[in-house]
Amino acid sequence: MVELLNLVYHCLVLALVVLGLAVVFGMLGVMNMAHGEFLMLGAFSAVTAQSAGLSPLWGVAIAIAVCGVVGWVVERLMIRHLYHRPFDTLLATWGLSILMREVIELFYGRGYQNVDMPFTGSVALLGVAYPSYRVLLMAVLVVLFAALALWYVRSPSGARIRAMVGNPTLAQAVGISTTRLATGAFVFGVCTAGVAGALLAPLVRVEPAMGLDYLLNSFFVLVVGGLGSLAGLAAGTGMIGGTQVVISNLFDQTSGYLAVLAVSLLFLWLKPNGLIARR
Amino acid sequence: MNRRRIIQGGVAAMLGMPLLSRVSWAASSPIRVGMLIPESGPAGLFGPSSRNCTELGVQDINARGGVLGRPIEVLYADGGLPPAQAAQAALRLWRGRKVEVLIGMHDSAVREAVAAMLDGKLPYIYTPTTEGGGCAPATYVIGETPQQQLLPVMPWLAQNRNVKKWYLIGNDYVWPRDSNVVAKEAIAASGGEVVGEEYLPFTVDNFDASLGRIRDSGAEGVFITLVGGASVGFNRAFASFGLPAKALRLCTLLEENTLLGIGAQNTEGLYSSTGYFATLPSGAARQFADRYRSTFDNAKAPLNGLAESCYEGLLLLEAMAAKAGSLEPKATEAVAEGLAYEGPRGRIELLGRYAAKNIYLAESKGTEFEIVQTFENVPPGQSCTN
Amino acid sequence: MAERTSGPSGQEQAGPAQAGAGSSPESGRQGAGRQDGVLQPTAARSRSRRGIGRDVAAWIVLAVALLSVPGVMDEFFAYELGLYLLFGIVAQGIALAWGRAGFLPLGQALFFGLGAYLACYVLPSGGILATTAGLLLCVLAPALLAYGVARLVFARRHESGPYFALITLALVMFGFQLANQWSSVTGGFNGISGVPVPFDLDRYSNYYYLVVAATLASTALVAWLLRTPLGTLWAAIAQNENRLQFFGFATDRLKAWAFAVSAGLGGLAGALFAGHQGIVTPQASSVVLSAEFVIWAAVGGRRSPYGALLGAVVIGILSTYLRDHFAYWEIVIAVVFIVVVMRFPDGILGLLQGLGRVVTRRRPSAPAKTPEAGVTAPDPAYRREAAPATLRYDDVVVRQGSVRILNGLHLVLDRPGLHCVIGPNGAGKTSSFNVLTGRLPLIGGHLAFQGRRVDGYRADAMARLGVGRKFQIPSVFAELTVADNLRIAQWANRARRRDLLRMATRDWTSETMARMHREFPFLAEVAHRPAGAISQGQRQMLEFAMTAITEPVLYLLDEPCAGLSVDETRHLSAVIQATVREAGAAALVVEHDMSAVESLADSVYVLHQGRLLAQGSFEDIRGNPEVRAVYAGGQK
Question: What pTM value is reported for the model?
Answer without folding.
Answer: 0.84
